[in-house]
Amino acid sequence: MATRHFLTLLDLSPEELQRLIERAMELKRIHQRGDHYEPLRNRVLAMIFEKSSTRTRVSFEAGMAQFGGHAIYLAPGGSQIGRGEPIEDTARVLSGMVDAVMIRTFAHERVETFARHASVPVINGLTNEFHPCQLLADMQTWFEHRGPIRGRTVAWIGDGNNMCHSYINAARQFDFRLRISHPEGYAPLPSVVEAAGDRVEICPGPEEAVRGADLVVTDVWASMGQEEEAQERNAVFAPFQVNERLMSLAAPDALFMHCLPAHRGEEVTAGVIDGPQSVVWDEAHNRLHAQKALLEHLLARRV
Ligand code: CP
Ligand code: NVA
User: Fold this and answer.
1) What is the number of the ligand closest to the CA of 136?
2) pLDDT at site 303
3) Which residue has a Cα nearest atom 7 of ligand 1?
4) What's the fold here for domain 9-131+284-302?
5) Cα distances (Å, whole numbers) of residue 263 to 205, 266, 268
6) pLDDT tens track for 217-229
7) 259 in contact with ligand 1, CB cutoff 6 A
8) Residues noted as catalytic
9) Atom of ligand 2 nearest to the CA of 225
10) What is the pLDDT of residues 241-290, one digit of tens each?
11) Which of 67, 173, 267, 297 is the most buried (most CB within 10 A)?
């Protein structure tokens, strides 16, 4: 059987994703009961980070430990990759030593190249274009608070970035409506938008996107690797701040999500992110459970 990878949400079928979210909720209950469940005893995950991380690193490392396995952290600049060893060679070498590899890097093509040369499952821990692991946690969080998301309306406010692209893919796979509002010049990739068909709508302004929405989502204005553009972006993105006024246009029971790290006073006000509609801490905690379900799914037949 061909090795399964998780480079975008499109690598799993809608049915597999649904089962994975349900399994994540079950694994969370097992963990909260204090029960030991170690399906990945003696299994090893290598984690290659070419960008910083708090949540992704800790959730994968803790998840592997709780499953009875082990995770190896390769820091940005801390391996031969940082000195120019071809990613293809690293993929071949690590495939003979570990059971799965997680990568956080810049160009998405880099994880695709790695996966083509790997014989173990490869997981995208964030690229410039996609962040699918975060969407597993976001969908789990929605299901826990509100049940099925099919037919609901989600508003994405801000940059057409990696998180926005993964929300577009989620709209396809989980069958919800996504309304996007972004500043001119910061649109999501047309190919990603077009592939989602009528599930995705680009709105003229944040108010139109948020009106009546069940979930409002935003992200930083300058992503990792865009630090030098931050000042310019702050000015352009200012009208796209998610604040109390914007949230008041959404459905009365709308939830607010943000993958974190957040900048209070920029893309979101403290009143919203620390307010009653925000579920950002559940979102962050669910990274652990959703990724444990993913690891179990990708590695189960090897156990
Ligand atoms: N949301 C997220 O991926 O956080 P980290 O950058 O801390 O991993
Ligand atoms: N868009 C952000 C997400 C961080 C988790 C970035 O790429 O930096």
Assistant:
1) 1
2) 40
3) 54
4) Rossmann fold (3.40.50)
5) 21, 6, 7
6) 999 999 999 999 9
7) yes
8) 104, 131, 134, 219, 259, 287
9) 8
10) 999 999 999 999 999 999 999 999 999 999 999 999 999 999 999 999 99
11) 267
Mind listing the pLDDT tens digit for each residue in 77-103?
Answer: 999 999 999 999 999 999 999 999 999
Please state which CATH class domain 134-281 belongs to: alpha beta
User: Which residues, in sequence order, are CB contacts of 108 under 8 Å at separation 6+?
Assistant: 7, 124, 127, 128, 129, 130
**Averaged pLDDT, 230-240:** 98
The best mutation among 47, 48, 51, 56 to test binding of ligand 1, ranked by most ligand atoms within 8 Å of the C-beta, falls on 56
How far apart (Å, rounded) are the C-alpha atoms in residues 134 and 285? 11
Closest atom of ligand 2 relative to the 53 alpha carbon: 5
Q: Where in the chain is the domain with CATH 3.40.50.1370?
A: 9-131+284-302, 134-281
Label residue 302 by pLDDT band (50, 70, 90): very low
What's the CA-to-centroid distance between 281 and ligand 1, angstroms?
12
- Its pTM stands at 0.98
**Minimum-distance ligand 1 atom for the alpha carbon of 56:** 8
What letter represents residue 196's amino acid? A
Cα–Cα distance between 67 and 268 in angstroms, integer? Answer: 36
Taking CA atoms only, the protein residue closest to ligand 1 atom 6 is 53
Cα-Cα-Cα-Cα torsion 28, 29, 32, 34, nearest 10 degrees, comes to -110
